[in-house]
Amino acid sequence: MRVDDVAAPQTLAEAISILKRRPEVIPWAGGTLLMTIGDEAGGGKPVSVLDLGRIPELSVVSRSDRYLEIGACVSLSTILALPPSLSLQPLRSAAGFIGTATVRNLATIGGNIASRNSFMSCFSALVCMDAAVELRDASGSRWSGMHALMNEDNRPRFPSASLLTRIRIPTAPWDATVLYRLGEATSQEPYAASFAAAARFEKEMISELRIVAAGRRIVRDRALELSLVGKRLPISQKDAEAARAVAKARAMEAGFGDGTAGLYGEYLAAFLSGVQEEGL
Ligand SMILES: Cc1cc2nc3c(=O)[nH]c(=O)nc-3n(C[C@H](O)[C@H](O)[C@H](O)COP(=O)(O)OP(=O)(O)OC[C@H]3O[C@@H](n4cnc5c(N)ncnc54)[C@H](O)[C@@H]3O)c2cc1C
Q1: How close is the Cα of 94 to the center of ligand 1, in Å?
Q2: pLDDT of residue 279
Q3: 214 Cβ below 6 A of ligand 1
Q4: Cβ 72 vs Cβ 49: under 8 Å
Q5: pLDDT (tens digit, 9 = 90+) per residue, 219-261?
Q6: Are residues 99 and 153 in the same domain?
Q7: Closest listed residue to residue 86, CA positions, set 106, 61, 108, 109
C-alpha cells in the first residue's frame, strides 16, 4: 500500500470534516489489516490516510450497569486485559487468537469490524453478543445493530464518509459460548472465517441461542436458532445432527466452500452436544 499523504486529526469533529471533504481517504487505526491487504485498499494507486490514533475519545472504555462501551480505537490487548469478572465471551476468544501480542497491541476492535472486504474474527462474536455500533458522519452520530455493517447479500458494507466510533456490548453473561476458526485462510480472504455461538439456559432448556459464521459472507440462521430454543438439555444426538446438516446447507447456500461449511456444521453440532455438560 503506497501512502500519498496522512491527515492526523486530534478531534472527532476534525476527522469527520476531513472525511466529508475527502470521502476517499482511508481511516487508519492500528494499520495491521491495511498493511496485510496491501494495494487492495487503494486499488494499486497511492492512497490518502486518515490516522485515527490521536483522537482521545476513540480510545475510551466505559461501563454502565448493563453495557460496556468500547471506543473504536481500543486495542485488542486492552480488551483482553479488561477484568475477568466481565465475561465478554466469545469476544475475548476472538481477540485472543488474532496475530501475536505485538499485533494485538496495535490492532483495534474498530479496525476489525470495519474491514471492507471480509468479516474479521471479532465480527461473529459481536453479532452473537447483540452488540451495537455507533457510526458518525457529517450529519451526526447514530447507534445501530451490527446489521448496519452488512448488505442484503450478507457481505460487509460500510457507509461512506463515516467513522465507527464506539461498540456497545450488553454485559449479561452467556451460559455457554464458543468461537472457532473455520479452517485456514483462502485466496479470497486474508484470514480464516470464524464460527461463534452463545447460549443461555433456563430450567434446563435453551432459552436463548445465537449461531453465526462469518468470512467473506455472514450466515445467521434465525430459523435454526428458534428451532433449538426450548429444547431440553442435554440436546439429543438426533437434534445436534439435524442442526449440523441445516447449518452446512445454509452456509453453502451463502457461498461458503464445502470444507468451510462442513466445519461450521461440525462445530455447531459439537457445541450443541457439549452444552449438556455445561448446562446441567
Ligand atoms: C500476523 C497477523 C495475524 C492476524 N490474524 C488475524 C486473525 O486471525 N483474524 C482477524 O480478524 N484479523 C487478523 N489480523 C488482521 C488485523 O490484525 C485485525 O483484523 C485487526 O483487528 C485490524 O485492526 P486495525 O486497527 O489494525 O485495523 P486497520 O488496518 O487500521 O483498518 C482495517 C479496516 O478498517 C477501517 N477502519 C479502521 N478503523 C475504522 C473506524 N474507526 N471507522 C471506520 N473505518 C475504520 C480501515 O479503513 C480498514 O478498511 C492479523 C494481522 C496480522 C498482522
Answers
A1: 13
A2: 43
A3: no
A4: no
A5: 999 999 999 999 999 999 999 999 999 999 999 999 999 999 9
A6: yes
A7: 61
